[in-house]
Amino acid sequence: MTTLPPITVSSLDSARLYALLERLPASAFAEAEALETELGRAAVREPQDMPPDVVTMRSTARFVMQPGGKEFELTLCYPDELDGSPGKVSITAPIGSALLGLAVGQEITWPAPGGRQVTVRLKEVTWQPEREGFLRL
């Protein structure tokens, strides 16, 4: 088994994500248990104390996925924030759950649709609400 990297989540994101997990029916979110496990192992900090290189909710991150080596830049959103515009990924998507709490340079192996595994390596957090002073979005 691969060792999981340490992750950091803001107290605001943690509270909102636990509330989301309680609201969503199990059939709507197949990876709910994996996200709950991630939240349970995360170091929790106040929004103003979040390191600037960590993916928080509503952050925009640049990352590489293996296999394939394809690079992406996506904004991590809550499900109700998806509006069909490109460049957004829900926390309920496997890649969304994998990105949450990662710091630049870290990688994590995560289950992908179809039973395969992908490795996600964070290259850059191009925008983070906490870093920009948005502490209650």
Shape: globular
- Output the number of helix runs: 3
What gyration radius follows from the Cα positions, in whole Å? 14 Å
Low-pLDDT segments: none
Strand tally? 7
Mean pLDDT: 92
Task: Characterize the biggest β-sheet.
Answer: 5 strands, mixed
Note down, in words, how this protein is organized.
The protein is an alpha/beta fold and 137 residues long. The protein has three helices and seven strands, in the order βααββββαββ. It has a five-stranded mixed β-sheet. It has a two-stranded parallel ribbon with strand order 1-2. The relative contact order is 0.23.
Map the helices and strands.
Elements: E1 8-10, H1 11-23, H2 32-41, E2 43-45, E3 60-66, E4 70-77, E5 88-90, H3 94-99, E6 107-111, E7 117-127
Parallel strand pairs: 1-2, 4-5
Antiparallel strand pairs: 3-4, 3-7, 6-7
List keywords for this structure.
7 strands; two-stranded parallel sheet; 137 residues; five-stranded mixed beta sheet; single chain; alpha/beta
Structure described in brief:
With 137 residues, the chain is α/β, with parallel strands linked by helices. It contains 3 helices and 7 strands; from the N terminus they run βααββββαββ.
